[in-house]
Amino acid sequence: MLRVTFTEQDIQVLDTARRTSTSPIVRRRAEALYLKAKGLRHSDIQRVCAITRTTLASYLHAFVDGGTAAVTRVQHQGQPSALNAYQTQLEAHFRAHPPQTVAQAQAAIAQQSGIKRSPSQIRAFLRRMGMKVRQTATIPARATEPDKQREQESFEHQQLQPRLAEVRQAKRSLFS
């Protein structure tokens, strides 16, 4: 039978990991070992953490072999993206020519690197590069008809300019 002893420092590390780790696997491991450190029976730990007997045994063996560092380590990182090799080239291209849509970015990436990815993968890649979605709105155009143009100029000179002058003199609030 495996004897596991926990120091106060181990318990503190496990408590922090079970509450703050970004990995759900690390949180589950830390929770199971924290409950073990608090004296719960194996059957109760299995029920609370929804794990099997074999899984709990593997957590205990990992703790005995490597301590809290082995328990809180994330072992699966996934595969690196093939786009990572083109990141600096694509980043320079996108800084010079920002894409307006993910579809434009997708086409540019396919053209620059020859790699085709789905829109969700393109979005994730752009976020990893530090790019953000910019929300834009239309800018009203100047009036083109002579009557509308006179009306716009009249408003600007008779109402807008005097109000802006009052704002500059602190007689009026800009947003009222």
Descriptive overview:
This protein has eight helices and no strands. It folds into three domains: 65 residues; 47 residues, no CATH class; 32 residues, no CATH class. The chain is mainly alpha-helical and 176 residues long. Helix 1 runs antiparallel to helix 2, helix 2 packs antiparallel against helix 3 and helix 2 packs across helix 4.
Helix-strand layout with pairing:
Elements: H1 8-20, H2 24-37, H3 42-49, H4 53-72, H5 87-96, H6 102-113, H7 119-128, H8 146-168
Helix pairs in contact: 1-2, 2-3, 2-4
Helix tally?
A: 8
Structural class: mainly alpha
Order of helices and strands: HHHHHHHH
- Uncertain parts: none
Major sheet details:
none
Shape: elongated
Mean model confidence by pLDDT? 88
| Percentage of β-strand residues | under 5%
Distance between the termini: 75 Å
Helix share bin: 55-70%
Radius of gyration: 30 Å
Total tally of structural domains: 3
Tell me the number of strands. Answer: 0
From the structure above, extract its key features.
mainly alpha; 8 helices; 176 residues; single chain; elongated
In short:
This protein has 176 residues and is mostly helical. The protein contains 8 helices and no strands.
